[in-house]
Design goal:
This protein is α/β, with parallel strands linked by helices. The protein has four helices and eleven strands, in the order ααβαβββββββαβββ. Keywords: ATP-binding, Ligase, Magnesium, Metal-binding, Nucleotide-binding.
């Protein structure tokens, strides 16, 4: 399928989920992440869920990262240039929901992308080859371009992999893993 078709299909699939299903599946995903060999790193970038888009609720993962005393990095989006600034999440970080429904820090300590070792990547759909499709603005592909080459990229999804995203391009960044409530996909 093409990215445009997948976006529509998976937005509809998400809309069909109740709030209870979203939380249950999100908790299962967070627990499955504990099985991955990713917990010896220091800097973890996590997306803060857009509630109105019914994304995977990353609150459970935030608790795990905090409990493991990891440095948690969240982004602030600039929609004029389609880029993100990465801010260290601390007890003093003030979060505000922007006009697109994205919770983001109002200010804070900026962390350079090369320091980030693990990125939890939002997505609408992914395929068995590790390609993903998001909302189509390219924020994460541009951000991942600025990270170190060995940065781990982990997608989080409520649904199984598609066979193939047909219209991938060289700028698309492949995932290393994708975790769903039912399965952990590893891409090599």
């Amino acid at each position: 399928m093409l990215k445009k078709e997948l976006r529509e299909k998976y937005k509809q699939k998400r809309k069909a989920l109740s709030a209870e299903e979203i939380d249950e599946k999100s908790l299962t995903i967070a627990n499955k992440l504990l099985e991955l060999p990713i917990w010896d790193y220091t800097y973890y970038h996590i997306f803060l869920s857009i509630e109105k888009q019914q994304e995977v609720n990353t609150e459970f993962l935030l608790h795990i990262l905090s409990g493991k005393d990891k440095n948690i990095v969240v982004s602030k989006s600039d929609f004029k240039i389609h880029q993100m600034t990465n801010i260290l999440l601390t007890d003093n970080t003030n979060l505000k929901v922007n006009k697109w429904g994205i919770p983001e820090p109002t200010e804070g300590i900026e962390i350079m992308p090369k320091k980030i070792q693990v990125v939890f990547v939002p997505l609408l759909a992914f395929d068995i080859n590790g390609h993903r499709t998001g909302y189509g603005k390219g924020f994460y592909d541009r951000f991942l371009d600025t990270c170190a080459p060995n940065t781990l990229k982990i997608g989080l999804s409520f649904f199984f992999a598609e066979a193939k995203i047909e219209d991938t391009n060289p700028h698309d960044k492949k995932l290393d893993y994708c975790v769903t409530p039912n399965e952990i996909y590893k891409f090599s």
